[in-house]
Amino acid sequence: MHVGAPAPRPAWTPAEGAARVRSLFARTFGPTPEEVGVWSAPGRVNVVGEHTDYNAGLCLPVALEHRTFVALRPRDDDRVRLASAQEPGVRELDLADVAPGTVDGWPAYVAGVAWALREAGHPVRGFDAVVDSCVPYGAGLSSSAAIECAFAVALDDVAGLGLADDDAGRATLAAACVRAENEIAGAPTGGMDQSASLRCTAGHALLLDCRPGLSPADAATGVPFDLAAAGLALLVIDTRAEHQLVDGQYADRRRTCEEAAAALGLPHLRALADDDPGALDVALDKLTDDVARRRVRHVVTEIGRVREVVALVDAGLAHEIGPLLDASHASLRDDYEVSCRELDLAVEAARDAGALGARMTGGGFGGSAIALVRAADASRVGAAVVAAFAAAGLTAPDLLLATPSGPAGRTA
Ligand code: GLA
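^ inputs. structure came back:
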């Protein structure tokens, strides 16, 4: 590493993650390891296509090597007992009592997945389970989707549903996780994070087309994205500025988009990003509210940037996507207004130190930025960002490298 650069936060190996949750399970519920399986699911970063998923748009996430691990033992009643390495104590609930507004905190993600699978008619019963994770919490890297998706594959497995066995079944699991997050955890997010965690494959980004009604095969396409072979690295800068999607800002952006689409007589804003290149200008002329105009412009131009990034990556030109990442950040900062001081600083410092392009990733209002760098420059760029935060008197950011990794599944 470059002098002064903190080492990027390593991902746990599958064996390490499994050992951690098995040990926590034994300490919490007693030593019965033979009945206890281990499943895990990754966090994600989005390469480009931000705040497009709930507008039926396009996005391009990759799964991280960093995963959330779950050790779980099925029960033959409807009781759920949960423990986390990140919090003391055991939380208990009964699946029959789960409904919107009934479960607080992280157990809502877990109970929500079991609830959504039961709502869809699947015979899911209770369980004892523990969770531990090396996906940083609250960093905009989908720690909550990683919990949901780890439990989704665990419950699928112990109930013998077989949904995780193919991509169409995984799309069904992702939909259950989205219901869990929207209805039980109360965060009105789109579906990108859950699809990324359940459907990404190693060495690939996942091009998601979020139009409703597409077949699973048409809605998600693996895009080969071998950064190492291209001599590139994707540096993730967790600004440590806490990000919280349950607050009103995300819901507010979503509502503005839906109202703008309705005012334009469209089912969703995606309709402005297909076929007719003049459609955006016509729509902007019709909208009278300046905020709505800027939100719409972000969504439509961002969908275009996803197409351009995919075309470059497909042509073996991943090193040329930097300006599109920069343009995405500017649009999120100025038109969508979801950046913040720490994200802007991370992006500027990374670029000044030679990053090919940089942008905030995820929902925004804190969380993480990504910087595309030549692999040999990763340490220097990381060190420069850390130095810029120190000079600004901000908490030191955490760094990690995004290695496009595989999806949720059984680990041990
Ligand atoms: C969060 C949400 C996603 C998506 C992104 C912004 O990560 O969970 O559904 O909307 O923000 O692209």
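Residues 290-314 form the longest helix (25 residues). The pocket of alpha-D-galactopyranose is lined by residues 46, 50-51, 53-54, 189-190, 192-193, 362-363 (CB under 6 Å).
thumbs up if we can close this ticket
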